[in-house]
Amino acid sequence: MSVVTNTTTIGAIDAPSRRNTELALLVFAVAIPVFAYANVGLAMTGKLPSGMLGYGLGLGLLAAVGHLVVRKFAPYADPLLLPLATLLNGLGLVMIWRLDQSPRLIQRAKSAFGAFHADAPKQMLYTAIGVALFIGVLMLLKDHRILQRYTYISMAVALFLLILPMFFPAVNGAKIWISVPGFGTIQPGEFAKIIIAVFFSGYLMVKRDALALASRRFMGLYLPRGRDLGPILVVWGVSILILVFETDLGTSLLFFGLFVIMLYVATERTSWIVFGLLMSAAGAVAVASFEPHVQSRVNAWLDPFACYKTDKTGACEQIGQAIMSFGSGGTLGTGLGQGNSDLIGFAANADFILSTVGEELGLAGMMAIFLIYGLIVERGVRTALAARDPFGKLLAIGLSGAFALQVFVVAGGVMGLIPLTGMTMPFLAQGGSSVIANWALIGILIRISDTARRPAPAPAPSPDAEMTQVVRP
């Protein structure tokens, strides 16, 4: 019998980075909008658009730079988030350019403002700024847990951003924009949703045990203690103030809904969902009873064709045209560049861009767009499940919830499911603040997913770790 002694070191199993998968998906995410761009040009003019090469190279360059930064600074991140965001952003640029070519919108802009300015080049610039912010998040935010240190600072910053539009003139009946010289208008609520998610994550991580306690059970629900209702009452009050003074139904719903979602995830108490829905409904009904702008949106939601001639805000006409555009699209749509959704008016490429998608791509195209949005939310939730720290879990679910809520609020308003709001469809609609903020949101989710999927470091080798093997003749 001989004894063979061998010293070994047990290493960590290396997880696949999936960066090559991301690169392959990015090729399709760039190619599909380029083909859509060509389709629109052929349908409207009978020839390929002159800017197709520049558009394809620009979108491809932004996607390539984003991929290289992810490969360098977040090698274990989710491989689907970047391609999905690129695909949506690219399709949004195509739809905005398609509406820029509409003779009706050009003539209407010249009649109202004396000149027409195309929105697609500006949106491309905003996309570049958004990708730059995405890169900055990945390069500067080495660990998402650093954000936990700024829990209460983020609360102050978020409230400042939400209150700031009150001091600027209303645009289309709502005070949700601020004017910045040399840049134009900014919608602070788009950035506030990310900062609010940071605050809620840090706050609920500390307070979730106290909030999860129940004093009594009533009709199958665990009722929270009276002193634990304080935080939700404060958030409810702030959301109502936003709705009253800024007449911004979308931000109010997003702000309050985000808190209720995160509260439920942190405490696993259904009672918070019930209280949240009841308080949200009570606040919305109370404000709608005396605020004219909200009343006009509610009337347009109830029956847009009945108030078509008496409404002075244009909400009934826009909702009516949007519903008819969805109906004319049918199952497969009229084809890219062959719809009439530009009849909606000045917001056709912003709040109502989903109507253009519904008319020209039909029900099938709408389901494809919603599937892409659903995949982004699903990957965010999967990131939350994989996160190893409670702050990362809450932050990922908060950002995913905010993204999902915004999609629901905008899509529901355009399709007549809920009253119309002033928010924009993420990545798809025209708007600098929206596309920039949502690229930052994707960057934070990628950072959390990289931390969650990164393999644990191998333990240091021990001089006493020996393996003894007995070999018998």
Layout of helices and strands:
Layout (H helix, E strand, L loop, with lengths): L1 E6 L11 H27 L6 H22 L7 H20 L2 H11 L6 H21 L10 H13 L14 E3 L3 E3 L1 H25 L1 E5 L2 E4 L5 H16 L3 H19 L2 H19 L3 H11 L12 H15 L23 H34 L3 H25 L17 H22 L12 E6 L2
Antiparallel strand pairs: 1-6, 2-3, 4-5
Helix pairs in contact: 1-2, 1-3, 2-3, 2-5, 3-5, 3-13, 3-15, 5-15, 6-7, 7-9, 7-14, 7-15, 8-9, 8-10, 9-10, 9-14, 11-12, 12-13, 13-14, 13-15, 14-15
Structure, described:
The N terminus and C terminus are likely disordered. The protein has a two-stranded antiparallel ribbon. A hairpin with a 3-residue loop joins strand 2 and strand 3. It is built from 15 helices and 6 strands. It is mainly alpha-helical and 473 residues long. Keywords: Cell shape, Membrane, Transmembrane, Transmembrane helix.
Characteristics:
two-stranded antiparallel sheet, disordered N terminus, two-stranded antiparallel ribbon, mainly alpha, 473 residues
Main β sheet profile: 2 strands, antiparallel
Based on helices, strands and strand pairing, what is the structural class?
Answer: mainly alpha
Helix-strand topology string: EHHHHHHEEHEEHHHHHHHHE
Global shape: globular
| Whole-number mean pLDDT | 81
- Parts with pLDDT < 50 across at least 5 consecutive residues: 1-13, 465-473
Strand content: 5-15%
Task: Trace the largest sheet across and list its strands.
Answer: 1-6
Please tally the helical runs, counting DSSP H or I stretches of 4 or more residues. 15
Measured as a percent range, the helix fraction is 55-70%
E-strand count: 6
The radius of gyration over CA amounts to: 25 Å
